[in-house]
Amino acid sequence: MAERTTFDSPVLSIVHTGAVATVWLDRAEARNAMGQDLWRDLPRAMEIVGEDADVRAVVLAAKGPHFSVGLDLKEMGALLVGAEPPTGGQSGGQSGGSSSAAVKARATRSDVLRLQASITSVARCPKPVIAAVHGYCIGGGVDLIAACDIRLASADAIFSVREAKVAIVADLGSLQRLPSIIGPGHLAELAFTGKDIGAERAKEIGLVNDVATDAEGVQKAAHELAGEIAANSPIAVQGTKAVLAANEGRTVAEGLEYVATWNAGMLSSDDLVEAMTAFMERRPPRFSGR
Fold it and tell me: Model confidence at 92, in pLDDT bands (50, 70, 90)?
C-alpha cells in the first residue's frame, strides 16, 4: 500500500497509509524530548489528521530508541523556574525593576495552559488514536499517551510519572486522565514515588492494552489494530468516541439520553444501509462514511 508523507515540522511527521495516519515523534537525536516545536506543532498535526476525511484511525509512534523522555529541561527550564515573562512588566505602580511575583505566576500559568492544550489536542481528535510506545515514556510522554484512546507497548518500554522526582506537580494531564485508566491507587503510587515501571506492570494495571516484543512489533501491532478500526464505519467509530467522551461527568441516565439523541440523527447513514445489505449478501461491508 502506497505511503505519503505530509506535514512540515522539525519534530513531527505524518505518514498516511490507506485510511491510517501515523503521527511520528521525529526528534530521535534528543530522545524525543518535548520542546517548544513539539508544543506548537502537535495541535496542528492533530488538526490535520482530524479533518482529513480519508483518515479513519491514527497511530502515535516515535522514531529512534525511545518514545519520549518527557519535557526538554534544557529548552523549557525557564518556564519551570518562573523566569521573567517575555514582555517584562511592572506592578503596583513601580517603575523599572523586575516583574512582581504575581506577574511571573500569571505568565507561568499561561504557559502551562498552552502546553495542556497541546496535549488535549490528541484527546480531542475525532479519530481514534493508538499510542505505540517503546523505550522510555517519561513525564510528559505519559501525559501524551494518557490522551490517546488505546495504548500498546514494547517489552522494553519504561513508564514513569517522574515529576515528583524533579520537584514538580505533574500538570499536563496525567493526574486528571490516568485515574479512569489505571485507577486512583495505582496512579497515587506512581505519582508519589516517581518510580519506573516496565511494560508488564503497565499491562497489569491497565496502562497499556498489550505488549509486543520490540519497537517494530508494537508499531506493527498498532497499525494492525488501526486497520481493524478503519475497516468499520467511520460514522459509527467516531460517534462511539464522541459518546464515550460525553459520558465523562454524566450519570448513566444522562449518558443514555445523550446516545439516544446522537443515534436519532446518525442511524439514517448510508453506512447502516451498507452494513445491512452486506449482511444479507454475505460479503464484507464497504463503508463510505456517509
Answer: very low
Q: Are the C-beta atoms of 166 and 216 separated by less than 8 Å? A: no
Nearest of 13, 78, 34, 12 to residue 172 by alpha carbon: 34
Q: Give DSSP secondary structure letters for the chain.
A: --EEEE---SSEEEEEETTEEEEEE--GGGTT-B-HHHHHHHHHHHHHHHH-TT--EEEEEESSS-SB--B-HHHHHHHHTTPPPTT----TT--SSPPPHHHHHHHHHHHHHHHHHHHHHHHT-SS-EEEEE-SEEETHHHHHHHTSSEEEEETT-EEE-GGGGGT----SSHHHHTHHHH-HHHHHHHHHH---EEHHHHHHTTS-SEEESSHHHHHHHHHHHHHHHHTS-HHHHHHHHHHHHHHTT--HHHHHHHHHHHHHHHTT-HHHHHHHHHHHHTS-------
- Residues 137-195 have pLDDT tens digits of 999 999 999 999 999 999 999 999 999 999 999 999 999 999 999 999 999 999 999 99
Whole-angstrom distance, CA of residue 133 vs CA of residue 141: 9
What single-letter amino acid sits at 54?
A: D
All cell numbers assigned to 113: 495552559
pLDDT digit string (tens) for 186-241?
A: 999 999 999 999 999 999 999 999 999 999 999 999 999 999 999 999 999 999 99
Instruction: Enumerate domains of the chain plus CATH numbers.
Output: 3-230 (3.90.226.10), 234-281 (1.10.12.10)
pTM for the predicted model, two decimal places: 0.91
174 or 266: which leads in pLDDT? 174
